[in-house]
Design brief:
- This protein is of the alpha+beta class.
- It has a single domain, classed as Roll (Nuclear Transport Factor 2, Chain: A).
- The chain has a six-stranded mixed sheet with strand order 2-1-6-5-4-3, covered by helices on one side.
- Strand 4 and strand 5 form a beta hairpin.
- It is elongated and about 100 Å long.
- The termini are far apart.
């Protein structure tokens, strides 16, 4: 065989071999199930917080979580977030709940978010209840054990700011 035919034959075999190899199967798209899991977790987190169950509430957060609450510095890490939630749960007359209105998970299946509305009531200095309504965004990350944990949580009011006196 001539060298050019050997080269052509070799290239043909390589291409044929390459084209016959099985491609790895794409991982299954689990977004729908993951979104249902996130929605349920967010609702359960709201129930735990509404019941003022600090330990159960904090169990929905990752070790490296960040809380971006209004009118407060960022709380970074589980212990700082625990302190922030502990202070909030101790507010007189606290009633708090939230409801996800949108849930999305990335195609990769490792990160997602919940977005929704909240309502929170606390007593003022005279003991009168004041109710705040607003929106929130929570970013969730799938952990090594498959559990979803919140890594960033932020919320803010829909009510107008009090005018400066």
């Amino acid at each position: 065989m001539k060298p050019s035919r050997i080269l052509l034959f070799s290239l043909t075999l390589c291409l044929l071999s390459w084209s016959c190899q099985q491609r790895p199967a794409s991982p299954p798209d689990t977004r729908s199930a993951d979104e249902a899991t996130l929605r349920a977790a967010d609702i359960e987190w709201s129930k735990a917080t509404g019941a003022k169950d600090l330990d159960r509430s904090i169990s929905y957060t990752a070790d490296d979580t960040v809380l971006l609450a209004p009118n407060a510095p960022a709380a970074s890490g589980k212990e700082a977030v625990r302190k922030s939630w502990s202070d909030m749960l101790a507010l007189p007359g606290l009633l708090i709940s939230w409801q996800p209105t949108r849930v999305e998970v990335a195609k990769s299946g490792d990160i997602g978010y919940t977005q929704g509305t909240y309502e929170m009531t606390v007593n003022d200095a005279k003991g009168n209840p004041n109710t705040d309504r607003g929106k929130y965004l929570s970013i969730w990350k799938k952990q090594a054990d498959g559990a979803w944990k919140c890594v960033v949580d932020t919320f803010n009011s829909d009510l107008p700011t009090a005018s400066a006196k």
